[in-house]
C-alpha cells in the first residue's frame, strides 16, 4: 500500500464501489469528490451540466430544445454566474476544486467517458450552481409540467424519515432512519460517499452532480431529509394594457430579453431559435393570452448559499451547531429529521415560506390576482416561526411527506397555531396517506425499537389498503361475484397481504386497487376524529366487483394464473440487471416503496421508490447499515451498476465501513490524486 504524500489525496474504493476520500485539506477533498463522482457517473454528470447551461440542444440535438427553453426562460445560467460571485471566497474555491476534479478525471481517463458528452468540457463552478438551481428550484420547488399547465402544485414525492430517542430505543441510543424515494434515473440518483479531511468525517449521500452530502452522519450526529408539502411557487394572473400590465391602477412595463437556443442538426450543422422572455414584478411570464398574462414567482432565487449551509451542517458536532446551519434558511424546502449521540432528536418543517397577506393553503394553490401589490409577497418567515420539535415525550419523530402536524402522535404541533397558508391543514393532504398512517402506527405501537427492528420495519411491504378493504371485499364477492370473481377472492383470502417476491395475490390486489382508485375507492373519507383508521370502506361494491372480475380475467390471460408470485411480474431493472422485486406502491400503504409502470412485455418494472437507505444507531462507536438500492455507479461498464438490487430484494443492508482498517479490509482500488 502506498503512503500518502503531503499534497496527495487518497481515494479508497470498497467492494461496493463506495469512495472513501482522505484529504489533507478541504479544497483537496472537494477535488477528490468531483473526481470520484465522475468515475462513477461521468456520462450522466456531463449530460446534466450541459442541460443546466441551457445548451443541451446545441450538444445533442432537438430532443433537448424544450429543456433548454425552460432553463433559459427561468434565467438559470445567468443567475448561476451571479450566485458564484456571491459565494464566500472559501466556497468559491471549493466549487473550483470540485469542477477541477471532474475535468482532471476525464483528461486522465478519456476512454471511460462517452465522446458525445465531452462537448460540455471544461466544467466550470457555475455549472455546479446552475445544476443546483435546475434540480432544487425548478424541479423540486416547481417543475416544467406544472408550469406549462399554469399550476403551482406543492411538490409531490416520497420519503420515509424516522428519528428515535434513547427512551424508545432498545439499546438506549438514538436511531436515525434515512429513506428517500425518488425516480431511479437522471438527476434523482443518489451517490454514496465517505468524506474525510481535517474537521470532517462525514458519511452519506449526495444527489449526483452535487458537491456536498444532503443526507449524512458523522461521529456525533446525523440527519435525513424528506420532501415536504410546501408552497414555494405561485402563479399570478396579470391584466394586460398598452403593451404592459396593470399594477396598482397604473400601467407598468415588462422587462424584456431575447434568448437564443442553438440546435444541432443530424448532419452536424446548426440552426438557431430566438424567443423573447418577459418579466413582471412578480417573476417570469409563463404564458400570455389576448388580455392577460401569467407570471411565476419562485422562492429562494435570492438565497445562493445552500451548498455552504449543507457543508457546515455536515461539520457540526451538536444540535446547537446543526441548527446554526439550518437558521441560514438557504435551502428552499425539505423537512429535516436529526438524531445525535447525546440522545437528542429533532424535526424541522424547513423552507422559505412567503409571508402572505391573507388566505389559506387551498387559496394559494390557485392562480393569484396579480394587478395589486396587496397579493405580492416579498419576505419570508424567519426560522423561529417554522414548525419544529425537539425531544418530544413520545420518544420518536417521523415524516412521510405528510404535513408537520403528524410528525409525532398524538400531535404536539397544531395547524391552528400557524398561518393557515403555511402548510396543508391535516393528514388528509398527505400524498400517500396510507403510507403515513403505516409509519405512525409502526412507531407508536412499538414499546422499544432495536436497530434490527428498524431495518425489519423498513423492509415491511404489508399493504395497509388490503387490511382496510379485504374484510369487506372477500365476503361480498363470495356472495355476489361471478365464478372468476369467486376464484379471485379465494386467492386474496390466502394472500399474505404483502408484496414480497413470493407473495401470491399481490399482483391481483395491486392491479385491482390501482384500477379502482381512479373511480373512487373509499366510502368513508379521512376523519379527524379517527385520523389513523380512515379513509376506509368500499365506495361502490358493484364497481369494485366488476373491476375485480375484469382484472382477474386479465391476470389469468396474461400470466396463466391468478396467484402468480409478485416477483415474476414486477422486476427491478438497472443497467443490464433484472431482479424480481419485493416492495409495493406507497399509495397502497407499503412502507417498502417501489412504484411501478407497465413494460412492453406485459409486465412491470420499478421506476421510483426506495433509493438510498441508512439506519444509524448513535452508540459508541456508531453502528450503521446502508444500501444504495440501484448501486453506486451508472457508468456502462461499471460492476456496481445495479449490484445492490439483490440485497434489497432479500431485505438486507450493508454494514458501513468507516475506519480506515475496515475500508482496507474491503478494498478493490486505491487512487492517489496530487
Low-confidence stretches: none
Count of alpha and pi helical runs: 18
Shape: globular
Count of separate structural domains: 4
Q: Quick check: average pLDDT?
A: 96
Structural class, by secondary structure, is alpha+beta
| Largest beta-sheet characterization | 10 strands, mixed
Q: At CATH's second level, what is the architecture of the largest domain?
A: 4-Layer Sandwich
Distance between the termini: 17 Å
Helical percent range? 25-40%
Any idea what the radius of gyration is?
26 Å
Strand order of the main beta sheet, please? 19-17-16-8-7-6-5-2-1-30
Name of the top-level CATH class of the largest domain: Alpha Beta
By oligomeric state, this entry counts as: single chain
Number of strand segments: 30
What fraction strand?
Answer: 15-25%
Looking at CATH, which topology of the largest domain would you report? Glutamine Phosphoribosylpyrophosphate, subunit 1, domain 1
CATH superfamily of the largest domain: Aminohydrolase, N-terminal nucleophile (Ntn) domain
Protein name: Peptidase S45 penicillin amidase
GO molecular function: hydrolase activity, acting on carbon-nitrogen (but not peptide) bonds, in linear amides; metal ion binding
Organism: Rippkaea orientalis (strain PCC 8801 / RF-1) (Cyanothece sp. (strain PCC 8801))
InterPro entries: Ntn_hydrolases_N, Pen/GL7ACA/AHL_acylase, Penicillin_amidase_A-knob, Penicillin_amidase_dom1, Penicillin_amidase_N_B-knob, S45
